[in-house]
Each structure stands twice: as structure tokens, then as C-alpha cells.
Amino acid sequence: MADFEDLVGERLVFGLRGPKLTDEDIRLFRDTRAGGLILYRRNFETPEQHTRLLTDLESDLGRRLIVATDHEGGRIVMLGGATTIFPDNLAAGTAGEETFAYRQGLFEARELRRLGVDVNFAPVLDVLTDRYSPNIGIRSYGKDPRVVTRHGIARIKGMQKGGVSACAKHFPGKGHSPLDAHLRLPTIDSTWDEMRATHLPPFVAAVAEGVDCLMTSHPVYPNLDPERIPATFSRRIVNDHLRVEMGFSGVIVSDDLEMGAIGETCSIGHAVVQAAVAGHDLLLVCHTEPAQRAAAAALTDACRSGAVARREHDAAVERVRRLRARRPTRFEGGVPAAEPDAGPLARAMATRAVTVVAPGRRDFRRALNGRVAVVFPRFSDLAPRITIEPEIAAETVYVAAAFAPAGVMPETRLVGIEPTDEEIARAAELAAGCDATVLFLFDAHLYATNARLLTELQARARALAVVLLRDPYDAALLAPEVLGITAFGFRKCQLDAVIARLLHA
Description:
Structural class: alpha/beta
CATH class of the largest domain: Alpha Beta
Radius of gyration: 23 Å
Number of strands: 16
CATH topology of the largest domain: TIM Barrel
Distance between the termini: 69 Å
Helix content: 40-55%
CATH superfamily of the largest domain: Glycoside hydrolase, family 3, N-terminal domain
Strand order of the largest sheet: 9-8-7-6-3-2-1-10
Strand content: 5-15%
């Protein structure tokens, strides 16, 4: 009995609730025999605490786990200490140097191995289209599948050379998804011909180059599988196409089965069984203990009853065990620390990525010699939820220091990530009284209040520059006289680069 339950647990990847190991955490992993751990921002405080968390958990369990995290770079970074925060993928693709992507993969792998990470759920190989993408956006290398392929493969090679298994995602491609699968279940109407022409090529190349893992996506693709079920549950997409037709012999990983896209269709127990039947090796249940225990029980029952075929189950477990065996030790490379050459590389990538998306008025630079207003998001509000660099969380200090080298001393008005009416009114009043205004716009497509903020400043500012901090789609909302500029992200290296270009163009 224990051996059978061990086999079931090998396929489960769970998250922990916080940064400190609890008795409940240990019981969860003991009872379910879960073989994998996914680390989130909520689990990381310092490298020392992080090292202790992993060491204590494995010591108490008496066995080796597969430790994974989402370290995409840019917007998605879970372990913010002893690592380099690189620009987002769209910045890397715009910078246009495959060598940059390779070296990023190499450096981040060395940093992650010092923190005990085995698998990085990256890079994103989704291809963008002209359709608004609320979830992928700057996480993608771009709209050209050739660009996505070249940069994605270079990074995979660097990452795996550095000692961490890469996990390309989100197969078969959701860069054109109209909804965020974290919240809702999207439907993508692309045909197989359309997918093969645009969205599948990066994944085909990743398989050919020997990527260790591939992660699937949740959307419904009715023209790929007429059953109209999420791709996560589609044996036609996962087993028949990825495993058989494409010949992928590595580990297939589900996306988080607690996401809203799955939750609106079925229970977690049904989800984990259907994902296993579809052909996944590792099954992610990332957030809550009741869901994790229900998933383990459902998978055990399905394996006992034959709903999950024993031969396929054993093959999945063997692939998982081979993945874990690649790294027999937990921490490698010394004390956790950033690679010395990684910071300069991140800054070079960000500088090369800066793009003017709307030329605006020719005299904007001259207007900066007068009274200057800066409207800047309160990034510190995001810090409890996502990794925010300390320098950026000290917003007014950062803005003053970034503009000072050009002799500009702006008046800074902070606004919420979703600005209030009062914040919008105060920002517009300041802009009306200044010679030049620089708006750092978080996302006007996603947040209606940011769209109102942009509208008000475009109506009242004498000369306006807008820095697009997230997805580039907001460029379509800029008035003809407005200067639009972006580095495709809001990490410090990107903000530094875009401000330098703005001040010295």
C-alpha cells in the first residue's frame, strides 16, 4: 500500500502557505507523499530563511523533493533575494540579442541552484498577436514566432547549461488568449493550421533542443479538440499531439489546477484525474491544503480503480524520477548570491529595449527645463503580493534620484495601481500647472481608472510624456501630441533605461 501511495504522490506538486514551515505543512507532505514543491513570493523572506525552509522540510520528510518556482524575469519573480531581476521577455526580444537570452538563462540558473531550485517554470514561449492579451503581454518575446523561438531556445540552453531544468510554457500557445486563465476560462478559436503557423513553432523547437519540461495551458481550443474541454484535460492535445506526434519524452507539467479557469468547470479532484488521463506527469495544486488533500485522494482512487491506466501512471512516475535524479544534491554553487555579471547584462538588455511608440511633440525635451510633474504608481502597495525591488518601493526617493542627473527636480504625485478619483483629480491639477508632465502608466487596458487618469492628463497637461509600464497595447490610447515610450516592464533596470532615454533624447 505504501509503495502504491508513494507512486501517486510522486506526481503531485504542492505549494506552502507561508515562509515558515509548520506542522501542518509537514503532515500534508507526509500524508500525501507529494513529490514536488512550488515556491511563491509568500514563501520567501531572505535567502537564509529560504534555505532553512527547504532544509527543514526535506529533513523532516527524509526524502528529496523536486523544487520548482516561476522565475520568468520581469513581472514574474518569486525569489527576490540573491537573484538578478532581468527585464521582461518582450524587452529581451526587442533588444534582439540571442546571446543576451543565453547568458540570462545561464546566470539565473546558477543563482537558482544556490537557492536549491531544480526546475524553473520558464521561459514563456507564447507568441503575441495584435489581439489584446491580458495575461501574457510582456511575458512573451514578441509577435514573430521566429523571434520567440530564437530567444526562447537560447535561454533554455543557458538555463540547462547552468544546472536548472527549463519548463517551456504554455503549450500549445495562448499568447492570443482573450482572458486571463487565472481568473476565467478562455476560448481560443485557432485551427491546427493557424497554431502550426504561429504558436506551435517555438514548442516544436524546444522539444528538438531537449527541453526538460513543458507546461500546458488551460484554454479551450474547440478547433483542436472538438470535445471543447480545457487543453489541460485534452488527451488529443497533451498525449496524442505533444507526446506522440511531436515525440516529447520529457516531463509534461500542468498549470496550476486551482486557477479560476479550471475551478469554474469542475472540482479539484476531477481536475487532477482528468489532467493525469490527458497525459500530464506533474500535477500542480499550488495554494490551499483542502484542495491539495482532495487532489491526492482523487488521484489515488483513480489509480486504484484503473481510471488512470497503471502502465501510463508508472511511465509518468519514471519520467518524474529521472527529472529529480538529474540533481541529487539540494544546494550547489556556494552561498546564495547574484552573479557578478548578471546586473550589467540586465541593464544592457533594458537599455537596448527602450522604444518610442509615439513621437509626440518635438519640444518636449525643452519643456523639461521648466516645472516638471511626475505621476508615478505606488508600487509599494504591490509588495505584499509580488516581488517589488526596494528602490522602486521607495517611490518618491527613486524618482528624485533618477531625474537628478539631468538637473531635473520633479514634483512627484503618487497614485494607486488603480487610481482613485481624488488621485486622478490631484494629478491632473498638478499637470495643468507644470510645463512638462511624465506619466508612468501602469495599465490602461486592464484598469479603467488608469484609462481615466490618462484621459485627464492628456486633456490638461501642457506637454505630456507617457511611460508604458506593462503591456504595449496602451500606445493605441495616446493622443497625437503625446510622447509615448516604453522599456516593456517596470523593473528598476527598465525604469532607469527609459528615464535616461527620456531625459537625454
